[in-house]
Amino acid sequence: MTTTVSSESALPLPEFDQYAGSYADYLDDPLRGRFASDPLHFHRRKWMLIQSMLKRADMDPARSRWLDVGCGQGSLLEVAGKHFSHASGCDPSAGMLSSCASFSVRAQASPVALPYEDHSVDFVTSVCVYHHVHGEDRTLLTSEIRRVLAPGGLYCIVEHNPWNPATQIIVGRCAVDVDAELLSAPSAGRLLEASGFELLRTSYFLYLPEKLFSRFGAMESALERVPLGGQYALLGRAPA
Q1: pTM passes above 0.90
Q2: In what order do the strands lie in the sheet with 86-91?
Q3: Structural domain boundaries, residue 158
């Protein structure tokens, strides 16, 4: 598939257009680097967890249309997109989207408006998006996601865990997170439920560094209810 960027007039986030050319460099941090030498490790871990959640919720990716909201440069799409019947992404930053090469992507006219039809996808993700969205805009974005989901569709939020000290340090000194307002998992759950979603599961992950995870990955699964992982994932279901 070829990358397509919506022709709608975009109002991109200036800081992310500015960071797009050297995004990986801006994310570089000594703590983060010691945790994983391969940046794709974080995206693979997200996909492993998402895949497990979808299986528990009886959703078959091969029969599902997936939208990654705030997809950035499309790293998660590259890792997981081949598993879905259709995979697409959107982002407010046209500069970030310019790096997407394999999937259909669209620029958002604003951070809380999605350029898709009602009930047009079966599964939505937003990965490390909400900490860049503030105040009432979080409710507006969640309502937009519910609008584009098919009845009974699934929505997964992945966010940094503010209860993890290392996460706080990394986010606090990251240039692209200068506006960050971290969202706890209980707050994210209330946000989903207030928009009509049924909260199905909360899982904490990123406890173990890359080298240890390859040997002791099962340990992370055992700790998924302990609220100390570097990130967490919430899965909700839209009303049928």
Answers
A1: no
A2: 104-107, 86-91, 65-69, 121-127, 149-160, 231-237, 198-205
A3: 17-237
